[in-house]
Amino acid sequence: SDIENAKRNAARAAVAEHFDPAARYVGIGSGSTIVYVVEAIQALNDPRIANINFIPTGYQSRQVILKAHLKDLKFDSLPPSTLIDVAFDGADEIDDSLNCIKGGGACLYQEKLVATQAKKFICVADHRKLQPRLLTFWKYIPIEVEPLATHTVMKEILALGATSAVLREGHMMKAGPIRTDQDNFIIDASFQPLLLPVDVQKSGSLHPIQKGMEGKGKAGVWEVRELAREIKAIEG
Ligand code: DER
């Protein structure tokens, strides 16, 4: 399909431009687009790739690495204070400032862990994902939560201005909430399209999130990790 071709073309371009066969550590994200990234790496047929440690971002990511007969190295086996040379990953939505919504595949915890420990983060996505504002096409922000904290976090997310906060269920694939690779739950929180600082200046009105956090010195586009950190702070 043309979407699969778009993913494959994005992956080939990302690998051609940002993959270094002499790298020692390469992060591999989760989802369907990343499969094309690994295919493009294999297609280089460079013998040096056998020496690279590929860091997965969850069980599915590890399956993709092993299926390609690449060497995988668990994130916590990275030598301390060693940075990953480059991390490739997909996203659910991206804005012009490269803020991303992550978590459509419920792998956001390890994805963000690997991304934050990489010298370079390459987001690989087809044209559907790039939107002028986050929450334009992808309507909610996935937030990983430790099961016991579910109702507390839901309450705080709603207090931050979320229009809804729903526990992600397995539907016919699994009765009850889905569990992440860390055995946590996912809350999908819906918000109005996020604003960029320029919107706030122009319209002067604050986005509900910014209103909720007004006076805490925070404005502009919120990323899940900032939101989660704020909620953690509120939760204490
Ligand atoms: O969960 C995530 O953030 C993943 O990166 C994922 O949503 C991207 O998936 P896709 O490449 O299948 O669109």
TrEMBL record:
The EC number of this protein is: 5.3.1.6
Supply the enzyme class, top level.
isomerase
This one is known as Ribose-5-phosphate isomerase
Instruction: Please name the pathway.
Output: Carbohydrate degradation; pentose phosphate pathway; D-ribose 5-phosphate from D-ribulose 5-phosphate (non-oxidative stage): step 1/1
Q: Report keywords, A-Z.
A: Isomerase
Q: Where is the signal peptide?
A: none
- Does Aminoacyl-tRNA synthetase count among this protein's keywords? no
Species whose genome carries this gene: Lepraria finkii
Q: Family per UniProt?
A: Belongs to the ribose 5-phosphate isomerase family.
Task: Give yes or no: UniProt keyword Isomerase.
Answer: yes
